[in-house]
Amino acid sequence: MKGRSLFYKYLLSYLLIGSIPVIALGCILYINSVGQFQKEITSFHTEKLNQAQLNMDNSISSLLKVALQISMDSKLSPYSINEGYRAIETTTQIKKYKEGNPLIREIFLYYRNSDMLHTSSGSFSTDSFKEYMFNDFGWNKLYFLDQLNAADTLRFESPVTDDQQGAFTGRNTIAMFIPIPMYSSAPTGVVAIALQASMLTDTVQQVVGNSNSDTFILDDEGKFLAVDNRGIQIPQEQLSALIRQYQKPGIYDFEYHQTPYSYLVTRSEKTHWSLISIVPKNELFHSVNNLRYFMIIIFAAVALIAVSGAVYLSRRNYAPVRKLLYNISTLVRPGDAAEQPVGEWEVIQHTVSRTIETNRQLASKLDEQGPLIKELWYSRLLDGTPLEEEELLEVQRLTGWKGKKFVVAYLHFRGRSELEPGAKEALAAMYETLTFAGGQGCGVELHQEDAIALIVSLENVTEGKRMLAQKLLELNELASSKYLVQPIIGIGGIYERVSDIHRSFIEAKGVIQSFPHQDGARAIFFDEYFTISQEQFWYPLEEQVRLSQCLIHGDVALAEESIRQLFAKIAIMDHSLEMVRCIYYDIINMVIKTVNQLHAPNLQEEIRRLLQFHTAEQLESRLLSLCRKLCEHALQTKSMKNETLIAQIVAYIEEHCCDAALSLEAVAEHFGMTTSYLSKMFKQETNQTFTEHLKQFRLKEFKKGLVETNKSIKDLVVEIGYWDVPSFSRMFKQAEGMTPGDYRKLHTG
Which domains, ranges and CATH numbers included, belong to the chain? Predict the structure, then answer.
């Protein structure tokens, strides 16, 4: 057998059936779970950035509050701080405000039209500030002083250089310019609060919580106020391009050096600052990636289980196919191997087609041999050969017996042996089936006895017996007038079991044996004829007749049963010793007659010992021993007669096998018997039908001719009695598994 395409088809089918829902469900779960989780993480980080923006707004509000407190502090009014002795108090007061807010690096208080700057470190002239003070801020001091004089609204500046490079590197200090008095249209001074840019970005980082993120704070004009460029070190030019591209608050994706990043931006409604956070995408969505990998692992595990299940189911479903294919391969004959198709399904189809055709042929043969099989079963019932329970049920099904009581009628035909085979056939057909009110029956031909046995099923015993006798008398009258035969009828006892039919058969024959000279005008029932009234003298004639027939038929079990019943009845009868002794000698006389009738040799000693009995028990024991030997001899004689006849028939068939006219009818006519009886006997003795034996012998002769001669196949076919060469060639190939030509090549080299 080449390939396992059917197995792979099973596997592919199960994979498709299992994968479609798994993939669909997996995709839905993956998209929903990962997508939803990604949305939640995006929302979470956006909220954190908004929270950082809110914290920064609150910080700016706290700084404005400090400026408001300074503007309202009387100790820091322009009149108070201009008094020379108040300089230390001014410094102390400003220092107090500075230390009250950790974001403040320094506070500058400046009143216009004044040349002094007041800080937590002291009060200085603007010239001193420009030359010596706060150089570590990295400011452009002239620009800072200009802003002090020009600021009329709240402003934030990173007064480093014009190119803002210091702000972008994150090393700058931001200046918050707040005109005072606050909310005045004509401010007289400015509170400048210096903020370390890193303090703002650190505040954002604490909220955002991404160690590798970059943070950028831009003012309302898009200038960099604070930068924490610790992660990707993105250039200012590219960052400026991103800012121009993504201005609206949200999350955006971009790549830098082939690495994906997420760009988060939010804008303050209070300060109009933009807060930007750039995070590596795999870090931002680290949990999403973990979930994605987890679901991929789960999906792979489910896929593996599905594949394993598909393989298991495929192997399980393929197992009967594999076993069937193996059985087919073991049954393929060498000649058929070349014709076997390659595909598994094609092999099965081919085999099923051949099986159906073979079954059709067998059914046809069964229809042809059905009557023969029934005849064989009927013969076994009459002979007392046990049938299996299934066979008994099949017999009742085939016959259609409705009655629950069974009886056998034995019809002996005087003058039947002189009839032609055709007349014998027609006579047997008259009694083949029997139907009457209250019962039905079927006939079994007994060729060697010139008799027919009718197995009858009765639905009602009393009415059935009367109608049976009437029907048989009508048939006998018709047979006498048409075929000039003289039938006499004996009917056995009635029994409930099918297995007791042979008892009724023996009793029916016993009636004919006891009254051989009766005419056919009446039917004699075994149980009625031997029944006597209580007043009459009892004599065991019924038991003797039954025993005699058992011995003739070789039924040892029924013979032993009859002997025991016979002696049991004699023992309970009230007769004189002389009368009992006469009965015993009459039984011995009947047995001796049966011995002579069966021509049983070497039984003189047993008969002598039988005559020298002293007790009833001794006679019964010796009689049982003798009966066993008689039954064995009867069976051997019957078997030898059948074997002799079958040997003659087989020899005749083999002698005339090349005759195309040889047939069952021709052989039956030659041996003076009916075709049905010949078929039944041939099947019973050879376990083959006549047709099977003839076909087998002709095939044997044909194969012998193929090997031993050089004659053409056509000539050999004609020689064995066939004319249709193609039909014979097909039959030969079916029987041998190869053509006649291949057989000749194989056996002749």
Answer: 32-287 (no CATH), 340-531 (3.30.70.270), 532-655 (no CATH), 656-748 (1.10.10.60)
